[in-house]
Amino acid sequence: MKQFLIFLAILMAIPTVAQQRISLTECYQLVNDHYPLAKQKDLLEAQSTLESEAVSTSQLPQVAFDAYATYLSDVIEFPLAMSGIEPLNNDQYRATVSVNQLIYNGGATGASLDLKSAQLKAKQKEVEVSLYQLKKQINQVYFSVLLAQESEALLSAKEKQLRAKLKEVQSGIKYGVLLPASDKVLEAELLKIGQQFQEIESDKKALVETLSSLIGKPLTAETVFERPFVQTDLQTDVNRPELEWFELKKEEIEGSEHVLSKQNAPKLLGFATGGYGNPGLNMLDNSFQGFYTVGVKLNWKVFDWNANKKQREALAINKDIITKESEAFRLNTNIELNRQQREIEKIEGFIASDQEIIRLRKEVLQSADSQLKNGVITASAYITELTNLYEDENTLIRHKIQLELAKANYNVIKG
């Protein structure tokens, strides 16, 4: 009984594996999560954290160690009246430890940290822009797989119809109603259909492998690709991530301007130095001594020949350049949306005429079917009409898939 239950569980699991399904929305999400470029967002954040920590260290005490030994070719000599003073040694030694503590720098550290944050946001948005641009590639591959899937189903229907017709023709030959070679024409056509199946399967396999690589998920030829119901709002309100990226680049420039405005601010530091050397601070004591100094230091660049001002003016020009790029992007996107809308309208017109053509083809094929049964036309003539109907039905399917692709691309262009 236990073995039977295990066998039953395996049988129930097989259809689940065979019926793997995937949707266009899922492909969008997977490419955002698994495409190699997506990993850059975490790397950029880690990089920015390290850089910000490095900037913040300017507010911590800065410790330095110095040591030297020198030999002087000449030293200070004292007059005879002061002959009781021991002359200085020609060899001198000193080791010091210095500590500098930033007290005030006009907010330059905070401005630098704000700039790092703005740079991180702009870089991460740039990654999003690159990932978003993959959506068109996803659309093209996904709908190509859908077309192969639909073409395969249509070809199966044609094959089924031909096999049924072959049985009728063979029966007609048996009873002398049709010419003996009539079934050979149908058999040859069935062999051609087998070749078409192979071609579709090969193309579909290549497309599925491409999509699998893009989204980072294993897919097979048996995977069912769900046909999306694409809705489009035919308005030109663009909401692309590129527009957000342009704004973040402006904020980054503003952060750079803020940093520059703090560069010439006065900087106040406290310092302390302790050391041991010969001589020490008392130059008249020719022996090893310990010593220390403490104090504050003010550093203020009063005049820089307008270098800082010119740098800020250059940044302002760069901001204007980005504004123009944003305007050009909006203009080009609206042009592309308009062109895509015309494409949608054109394909909708094709679909309406395709349906009428198919209706007429079915009437012709129905007549040809009756004529073949009565031996009025040959099997070749019947196959011609069947092939015409198949090709027109295939054209209709292709146009329907193209319409969905055009709508999906419209949504991607619009954002």
TrEMBL record:
The positions making up the signal sequence are: 1-18
Where is this chain's protein located in or outside the cell?
A: Cell outer membrane
Q: Which domain of life is it from?
A: Bacteria
Q: Report keywords, A-Z.
A: Cell outer membrane, Membrane, Signal, Transmembrane, Transmembrane beta strand, Transport
Recorded hits in SUPFAM superfamilies, A to Z, give: Outer membrane efflux proteins (OEP) (SSF56954)
The record's section on Pfam families has:
OEP (PF02321)
- Give the family per the record: Belongs to the outer membrane factor (OMF) (TC 1.B.17) family.
Q: What is this protein called?
A: Outer membrane protein TolC
